[in-house]
Amino acid sequence: MRHERNLISSFKSELIVNPNDAAIFFKDPRIGPSPPDDFGTLYLLRRDIKSCMDAKILWPGAMCIMAGIDLLGKCLDGNDSFGGTGKRFCNFAVKYFHLSSSQAEPLYQLRNALLHSFGLISNVKSEHCSFQLQAAGSSILISLLAPNCFKVDLICLHDQFETAVSEYHRDLLGDAKLQKNFSSMFPMYGKTAIA
Question: Residue 4 falls within a domain, yes or no?
């Protein structure tokens, strides 16, 4: 018992991430908020994503998922430099959605279409990239229908997003570099106060 306490104590002393920061950031979205307080931005996104997806309000749910991947990409890479959004987004999608680069890039283009064009077309270097969305609960997140035309399953996107959050959280707890990167982004992007 004493040995276990020493191991836990030594592990905690090696943590770079403030445990309270991680707790509010990764809070279970099924737990309702109790304002006034500070709330993790990822928690708030996941709570709203869950509400949208449960009510079959898929478009704003997908938009929030894309914003969540953006946020997690910043935390993973430890930077928010201008012009690096696509790289960070794709890095997170490759590592935690287990996509190939050729699958992560169209997912990023869907993000651009939803968040910037408010539609299903994204312009990439003078080429149009178009999307069809479905909510079938397929095990295939993204598939090529025709050149530059992709089908994305939003139920699968939500499921894979939640799995990615869990995997990233697990990795964060055991990796000093990930903790340093997370800690560098948390003060700016990790929490917000709600009155």
Answer: no
Q: Which domain holds residue 56?
A: 40-185
Q: pLDDT by residue (tens digit) across 56-87?
A: 999 999 999 999 999 999 999 999 999 999 99
In the prediction, which pLDDT does 6 show? 39
Q: Is residue 108 part of a domain?
A: yes
In a domain, 28, yes or no: no
**How many distinct structural domains can be found in the chain?**
1
Is 152 a member of any domain? yes
Q: What's the pTM?
A: 0.89
DSSP labels for the chain? Answer: -HHHHHHHHHHHHH--S-HHHHHHHS--TTSPP-SSEEEEHHHHHHHHHHHHHHTT-HHHHHHHHHHHHHHHHHHHHT---TT-HHHHHHHHHHHHS---HHHHHHHHHHHHIIIIISSSEEEETTEEEEEEEE-S--S--EEEEETTEEEEEHHHHHHHHHHHHHHHHHHHHH-HHHHHHHHHHHHHHTEEEE-
Residue 1 reports pLDDT greater than 70: no
